[in-house]
């Protein structure tokens, strides 16, 4: 007899199923998209989704102001948005974990220098910094990935530093140090395995933040440039048609909400599952 997994609420299960579905849709976008996402059909422009008057059965989600199929553009836009958020998360994680390990293990002036940089980074309104970087360096996809990558590295650095400083005085680390283990060995063998859980939790929570940041930049016209579709750029390009063709904005905006909601719910679940302090309450 099948039993419901212990500690997994129906809401979390639904979030996991939703996340899996969205990832599959993104991965299989070339096979599932009924049309070329950039194909324009001006005679079929501004057609509403199925169920509304003037709807075209071939375009389930309707068409945009250039007659492009919204379903196809949403699938490809979801694919690119998830890829940007994933690479941005990995870059931020690599930078933050590396600096946090160095600051926590070495201490002294190195720790002071790293944490000063972290404090400066956290004190700046990053959306404005991102706008400045993209405006100066251009709107190439590689630039956007780098911008997303440096968005939340400071959060990883502070978390890892705090974890390392708590671990470095424990008996097993002292024993490794007394046995002649190098700092690199201590960091990779004794430190990293013990900080994986909180880092994974923070990465899952920051993933949704990066999706929203990419959407904001694309909405302002500083993200991936047309005709390439991301969910944020689709919302930005359709804002002038909200009164007459609201589906152009509503469909990609709903996808942004679903992706962010699934990522945050899974992040909260991972935090509750792996955070020892929460389990002790």
TrEMBL record:
Membrane topology: Multi-pass membrane protein
Record InterPro entries: BP-dependent_transpt_permease, MetI-like, MetI-like_sf
Parts of the chain that traverse the membrane: 12-35, 80-106, 126-153, 199-224, 244-267
Major location category of this protein: membrane
Keywords carried by this UniProt record: Cell membrane, Membrane, Transmembrane, Transmembrane helix, Transport
GO cellular component: plasma membrane
Domain ABC transmembrane type-1 intervals: 78-267
Matches recorded under PROSITE patterns: ABC_TM1 (PS50928)
Subcellular location: Cell membrane
Pfam families: BPD_transp_1
Any one Gene Ontology BP term: transmembrane transport
Membership in a protein family: Belongs to the binding-protein-dependent transport system permease family.
Alphabetized PANTHER family for the sequence: OLIGOPEPTIDE TRANSPORT SYSTEM PERMEASE PROTEIN APPC, PEPTIDE ABC TRANSPORTER PERMEASE PROTEIN
Protein name per Swiss-Prot or TrEMBL: ABC transporter permease
């Amino acid at each position: 007899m099948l039993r419901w997994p212990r500690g997994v609420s129906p809401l979390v299960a639904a979030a996991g199923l939703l996340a899996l579905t969205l990832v599959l849709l993104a991965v299989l976008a070339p096979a599932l998209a009924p049309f070329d996402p950039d194909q324009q059909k001006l005679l079929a422009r501004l057609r509403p989704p199925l169920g509304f008057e003037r709807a075209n059965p071939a375009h389930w989600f309707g068409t945009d102001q250039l007659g492009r199929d919204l379903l196809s553009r949403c699938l490809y836009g979801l694919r690119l948005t998830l890829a940007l958020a994933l690479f941005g998360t990995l870059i931020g994680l690599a930078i933050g974990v590396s600096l946090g390990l160095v600051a926590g293990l070495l201490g002294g002036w190195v720790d002071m220098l790293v944490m000063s940089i972290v404090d400066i980074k956290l004190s700046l309104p990053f959306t404005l910094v991102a706008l400045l970087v993209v405006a100066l360096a251009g709107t190439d996809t590689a630039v956007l990935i780098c911008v997303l990558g440096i968005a939340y590295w400071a959060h990883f650095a502070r978390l890892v530093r705090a974890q390392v400083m708590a671990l470095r005085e424990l008996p097993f680390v002292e024993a490794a140090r007394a046995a002649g283990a190098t700092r690199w060995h201590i960091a990779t063998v004794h430190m990293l395995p013990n900080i994986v859980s909180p880092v994974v939790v923070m990465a899952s929570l920051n993933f949704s933040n990066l999706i929203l940041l990419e959407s904001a930049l694309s909405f302002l016209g500083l993200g991936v440039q047309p005709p390439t579709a991301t969910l944020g750029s689709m919302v930005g390009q359709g804002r002038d048609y909200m009164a007459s063709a609201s589906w152009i904005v509503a469909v990609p905006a709903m996808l942004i909400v679903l992706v962010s909601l699934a990522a945050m719910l899974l992040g909260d679940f991972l935090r509750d599952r792996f955070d020892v302090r929460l389990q002790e309450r």
